[in-house]
Amino acid sequence: MKSPMKPVRSEGKLNLFFVEMIIVLLFFGIASAVILRSFAGSDRMARESRETENMAFLAQSAAEIYSGTASIDETSELLLSENKYMRRYSSGALRTVLITDTDVFMTMEEASEEYGGGTVKTLMISFSDEDGRTLYEMETGAYVPERTAIGIE
Amino acid sequence: MRKMNKADSKRFSDTISAAGSMTLFLLFAVCCLIIIAVAASAYERISVNYEDTFNGAAAVRYVTNKLRACDSAAVAGGDVIVLFDEGYKTIIYERDGVIYERLFPDGSEVVPDGGEAVFRAEGYSVKEYGSGLISISAEGDGGRVFKAYCRLPEGRRSV
Amino acid sequence: MSNGGKDPIIGIGTGYLSIMMIFVVLCLTMLAALSYSSAAAEKKYSDKSGEYTREYYAADLEAKRVLAEIDAVAAEYGGPQGIGFADGLTDIEGVSVLVLPDGAEVSWQTPVNEKQSISAKVRYSLNGYEITEWKTVFSSESENKPLNVWSGE
Questions:
Q1: Measuring CA to CA, which residue among C38, C145, B40, C122 is closest to residue A145?
Q2: Mean pLDDT throughout B107-133?
Q3: CA C16 from centroid of its chain's CA atoms
Q4: Are C48 and A53 spatial neighbours (Cβ–Cβ below 8 Å)?
Q5: Where are the domains of chain A?
Q6: Residue A152 confidence (pLDDT)
Q7: A102-117: per-residue pLDDT in tens?
Q8: Contact at 8 Å (CB) between B137 and B145?
């Protein structure tokens, strides 16, 4: 590429440079705005994907622990002991709220359904942000037989 | 004398204009470079995230789904998982940051070697907690760790 | 290039700015497009995995509810050898019973999504029940559906 430095003969040429500069800046500003919006959108999508992945893995972990223990306390204890960035926000008999490392609230709510031979304990796991907006939720459960079980998965 | 002064002053103003235009040009060039560098770093961040998801997270999901779809399973020392199905066994193991899978017919000796590479995942590990509960974790290319708990299917067999 | 017989004044020629701007805008557009496609693919994958996790645990819970219903029948009729155990199970949708000399094997499937189901088998004996199978299988419809491959014609 040739050097952009050129001998300039008159003011006319210089004025032409400034006119070009203004047009280029105008066009560049518009193009940048569009491209920046696209980047911001991509970044937001990537962040949301990361959040969804984290929430789905946490929910799966809680579900798997709960299916064996049928206890909301044991589930939250194991989750907390294995994820050092998580902390407890509140806990009750049937409801425990944890906070993840990204300040997302993980709420676990327990309910029971009585059957003739035992109880199906359900656990509703939901994730919400600081504004209370639900980001991800799923339901899981465990069957606790009264008398006949040799083992349950 | 007056004429000379006018020519000198014109020349001086031309020089200032030329210097100004060059400064503006350089400024524009530097700004362009900075913008390209920022955009490239943003792309790199998104790309690393993408690699993380499609290696680390996908590897953990793959192993989890395999565990859910087999008849029974066992952890055979270290990070080797053996999946039992009717007529064959499958082992999933890690070597040098790569997760391998290999099928064996029933009755043959299970060796964690010579399998087919399925995922690239650093720091792959399997941890047992008792009562069939295990955790599977893997690291993506960007260093993000993915971890999920899973329960070994009922009817564990010895390897 | 002279400037009235004196040294020429150095300036920037016209067009260079435009060329530079076009190059930069092209670079940015390319990076933005690549970022967007990566982020969109990742988002699609994360959403699908999150959705599958939700579907799987919902099906798992449903299968446990069926198990609870079966166990309630077993409790009502005094185990698998009680009169009316097999008949009692006919009220539960999708459950099939195989009567064995020392008990019964009860099996059922709970759909996870259009392609997959959880296949469960429980073996009842005098001592109680044992889960012999609890795994995901491809639904019969999707298994019988031929793959859309080129037949060479």
A1: C122
A2: 87
A3: 53
A4: no
A5: 11-145
A6: 41
A7: 889 999 999 999 988 8
A8: yes
Query: For chain A, how long is the longest CA-to-CA vector?
Result: 102
Q: Which residues in chain B touch residue A86, judged by CB atoms under 8 angstroms apart?
A: none
Cβ atoms of B100 and B116 within 8 Å: the answer is: yes
Which residues of B sit within 8 Å Cβ distance of C? Answer: 7, 11, 14-15, 17-18, 21-22, 25, 28-29, 32, 35-36, 39-40, 42-43, 46-47, 49-50, 53-54, 57-58, 61, 65, 68-71, 153-155
pTM for this entry: 0.84
Backbone angles phi and psi of A133, in degrees to 5:
-75, 125
Chain C CB contacts of A13 under 8 Å are 11, 14
Nearest to A38 among C12, C36, C38 (CB): C36
CA dist., res. A49 & res. B92, Å (int): 27
Residue B114: partners with Cβ closer than 8 Å, 6 or more residues away: B102
How far apart CA B67 and CA B59 sit, in angstroms, is 12
What ipTM, to 2 d.p.? Answer: 0.82
Residues of B in contact with C133 (CB under 8 A): 71, 154
What are the pLDDT digits (tens) for B61-86?
Answer: 999 999 999 988 988 878 899 999 88
Helix (H) or strand (E) holding C93: none
Phi, psi angle pair for B71, to nearest 5°: -70, -50
CA angle A40, B39, A27 (to 5 degrees): 85
